[in-house]
Design brief:
The chain is an alpha+beta fold. It is built from eleven helices and 21 strands. About 50% of the residues are buried.
Length: about 425
Amino acid sequence: MVIKKRGLVLGATAFFLTSVAVAGTGIRLSQTQAFFRESPKELVDEVWQIVNRQYVDATFNQVDWREIRKEYLERDYSSKEEAYAAIKEMLEKLEDPYTRFMNPEEFNNMKVDTSGELTGVGIQIAQDEETNHLIVISPIEDTPAFEAGILAKDIITKIDGVSTEGMDVNEAVSLIRGKPGTEVILTIRRGDSEVDYPLIRASIQIHPVKARVEETDQGKIGYIRLTQFSAQASQEMKEAIESLNQENVVGFVLDLRSNPGGLLISSVEIARMWYDEGRIVSTVDRLGESERYSANNTALTDKPLVVLVDGGSASASEILAGALQDHKRAVLVGTQTFGKGLVQSVRGLGDGSGLAVTIAKYLTPNGRDINKQGIAPDVVVEMTEEQRKELQLNREQIGTMQDPQFSKALEVLFQEVAKTNMEAKN
């Protein structure tokens, strides 16, 4: 796999997949010119310098960042491990769970994610900024966590009996990750109850796009489920749309539920398949707008489109859904999305470790900042916990008439198809 030096990646904070090529929302991969040399203190200073140059908040969360540098460079470090601990402590001053240091093993794991070859239990987690709880952003479909019934917004209270109170994401990832075939027990709090989930770690091959034709009495419908914005997603999406067009479908349902995000460029490329003109997303750093992505007249279809979203739709999913909604290209059906709208730059450091720094936030075409807010669907369809668990345990029902949100999406799509036909006649 090739990691492009300036590729933006979106996703969550940590993947229990071999790595995180998806992260939070926007990860810019680039190789620092710094070299670790012989002094651990040089690594501490290099991390400080990167944050000082790039961090999205010029006030550093009201922290005297220069004083922080003085404090940590006055210390003596006898090993890399001491420097690593000091760096993590230093970054905690920012109170930003997405700005984080990764030791060489953690950083190497992260770089693998975009390949779509994952190892672990198949969940993406973050640390809640208000409660510091470790929360599940989304389980990945067809993984041990998904099959066990773990849901978006679940709180992980223990890992193999060890309390997660005060535990950061990297520590949690290291405890959950392990060899395929071994077991890890996650204690999950959902509402007022706690349940132990024994999970068998696995190597997971993910194909992010699944597509089929839904035969209805009002014509053929193209159903596309996108589970992750990985490196393969845009090509697989292109093939799916072209194949469904050949089936003469009258419209599409695009399912982004429980899609935790992925590569920014993947979300941009996929948005371009649905409309020809207009902005897709822009990123804003502490100096103002830094990058803008727009459609480029390469749409593959103009047929009516309904997009399914829920609380597990995060990051790149929200970029795509927000762009389609702002341009009135699609009707969004489901529930409020996760609300992850920050961009991280990920840099490799000289000793093989890495640093993710929040450098920007992204805005929808209409200028909406969705971080912590999420995107509200046009048509709200809530599901009970029992219904959600039923779909997870019986995955063949997802995207069928046994799926309440999909059923509503079809109803909305039929209305859009009728409206399009009426306009064509006039």
